[in-house]
């Protein structure tokens, strides 16, 4: 794109035609908001997860299962895993959108991230449930 | 007909005059050793690294669910010298991303934007991340 000191628009479309589908649809900020909301939820959940992992670092399978068998631990750990992977998906998507070109690579990587966070989130939840029940 | 991207680069200023939109400078324009840009890019780097950290957590959970035979292998790998170093690195990255995330949320609320405030909070985040990582590692060692 040439830098033009005297800008002008040379598009043979009506102003309405150009404006349609471009912005003010209130959907553009949804990703940004989801990142903030998930990060706020992760403040207490992360502190809880750090505490739990430090406490369980040396535990055997029965020890972890006994911990998860307490309903609030299973609930908090599942909430942590789901929110964490949601937040990771949002964050990695932005990083990919910022740095990865060309388009085909960007779409492929975004798809891998979306599939990856869902599968790993599900694996975490199922593992926690299996330990808890 | 011109490229449509060219048209999107044209906007109006507050007087209604057509102007070329300013373009934000690319990465090379920033001095990454500065508190401002350094803490910013570290937020991204730690965020991406912590995605791998989450994978470590999920592997541990799945191993525990699979039983002691699998869990003992995972614990041996995580408990090796390299494993412990990686876990300590994740611990620091987590505290950094946590504290700098709080800083970002404060900015989103419109607080702490002044340059001296921003520099002070940046230094607090860096110092705090190392202190809390050290506390966490020591706590994990004592529990062990």
Task: From the structure above, extract its key features.
heterodimer, A: 133 residues, mainly alpha, 3 helical TM bundles of succinate and fumarate reductases, 5 helices, 74% helix, elongated, B: 144 residues, two-stranded antiparallel ribbon, 2 strands
Description:
The complex is a heterodimer of chains A (133) and B (144). Chain A has helices at 15-19, 30-56, 61-68, 71-99, 103-132. With 133 residues, chain A is an all-alpha fold. Chain A has one domain (31-132): Up-down Bundle (3 helical TM bundles of succinate and fumarate reductases). The N and C termini of chain B lie far apart (70 Å). The model of chain B has no long low-confidence stretch (mean pLDDT 90). Chain B has one domain: Up-down Bundle (3 helical TM bundles of succinate and fumarate reductases), CATH 1.20.1300. Helix content of chain B is 73%, strand content 4%. With 144 residues, chain B is mainly alpha-helical. In chain B, helix 2 packs antiparallel against helix 3 (68-78), helix 2 packs across helix 4 and helix 4 (81-108) packs antiparallel against helix 5 (115-143). The A-B interface holds A 1, 3-5, 7-12, 18, 36, 39-40, 42-43, 46, 49-50, 53-55, 57-58, 60-62, 64-65, 81, 84-85, 88, 91-92, 95, 120, 123-124, 126-128, 130-131 and B 1-7, 9-10, 18-20, 44, 47-48, 50-51, 54-55, 57-58, 61-62, 64-68, 71-72, 75, 94, 98, 101-102, 104-105, 108, 136, 139-140, 143-144.
Strands, helices and their partners?
The complex is a heterodimer of chains A (133) and B (144).
Chain A: H1 15-19, H2 30-56, H3 61-68, H4 71-99, H5 103-132
Helix pairs in contact in A: 2-4, 3-5, 4-5
Chain B: H1 4-8, E1 10-12, E2 18-20, H2 35-66, H3 68-78, H4 81-108, H5 115-143
Antiparallel strand pairs in B: 1-2
CATH class of chain A: Mainly Alpha
Query: Helicity range of the residues of chain A?
Result: over 70%
Q: How is the main sheet of chain B built?
A: 2 strands, antiparallel
Mean pLDDT of chain A: 88
Order of helices and strands of chain B: HEEHHHH
Q: Give the helix tally of chain A.
A: 5
């Amino acid at each position: 794109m040439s830098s033009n000191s005297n800008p002008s628009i040379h598009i043979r479309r009506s102003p309405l035609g150009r404006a349609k589908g471009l912005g003010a649809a209130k959907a553009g900020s949804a990703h940004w908001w989801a990142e903030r909301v998930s990060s706020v939820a992760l403040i207490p959940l992360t502190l809880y997860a750090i505490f739990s992992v430090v406490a369980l670092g040396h535990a055997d399978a029965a020890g972890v299962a006994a911990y998860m068998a307490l309903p609030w631990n299973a609930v908090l750990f599942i909430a942590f895993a789901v929110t964490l992977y949601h937040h990771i998906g949002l964050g990695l998507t932005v990083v990919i959108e910022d740095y990865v070109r060309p388009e085909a690579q960007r779409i492929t990587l975004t798809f891998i991230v979306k599939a990856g966070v869902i599968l790993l989130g599900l694996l975490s939840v199922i593992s926690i449930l299996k330990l808890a029940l | 007909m011109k490229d449509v991207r060219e048209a999107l680069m044209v906007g109006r200023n507050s007087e209604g005059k057509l102007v070329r939109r300013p373009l934000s400078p690319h990465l090379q324009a920033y001095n990454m050793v500065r508190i401002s840009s350094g803490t910013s890019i570290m937020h991204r780097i730690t965020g991406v690294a912590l995605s791998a950290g989450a994978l470590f957590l999920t592997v541990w959970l799945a191993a525990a669910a699979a039983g002691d035979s699998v869990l003992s292998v995972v614990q041996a790998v995580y408990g090796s010298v390299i494993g412990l170093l990686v876990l300590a690195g994740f611990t620091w990255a987590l505290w950094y991303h946590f504290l700098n995330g709080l800083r970002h949320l404060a900015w989103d609320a419109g607080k702490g934007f002044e340059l001296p405030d921003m520099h002070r909070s940046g230094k607090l985040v860096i110092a705090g991340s190392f202190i809390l990582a050290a506390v966490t590692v020591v706590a994990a060692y004592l529990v062990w």
